[in-house]
Amino acid sequence: MWFDEMFEAIPHLYVVVTPPEGSPPRAVIVNLTSQRPNSDTTVILHPGDHPFIDRPTVVNYKQARCASIEWLKREIDGKIAWADFPFELDVLKRIQDGILQSPFTPRGIKKYCAGRFAVAEPKDPGKQGNGLT
Q: What pTM, to 2 d.p., does this model score?
């Protein structure tokens, strides 16, 4: 999802990293920005990770926020934001994992996401497989 001049003068690509939840429904979003010398390098994306990305790009976890779905729809309807190509699941997973790993993610966002990204452990850690047994 692109936001044009909403948070900054330069449009940035935002990623919706959690499914909508709650009443009213909300989701966590993070933005992507070009890598700079002092960037958070928890997750670095490269050309090929998304059609938008044409140089080393980082996830700006410091500005992660919870956004209402109603607000996101209004921004799209008002042409302030627009949907773009979705990320491949493996890239989305890297971005989600980075939320929990980055020292810059706001504590409330990290706590909110921790329960939503949890992976169930297999009952018998010695077994290999899909963890459903």
A: 0.79
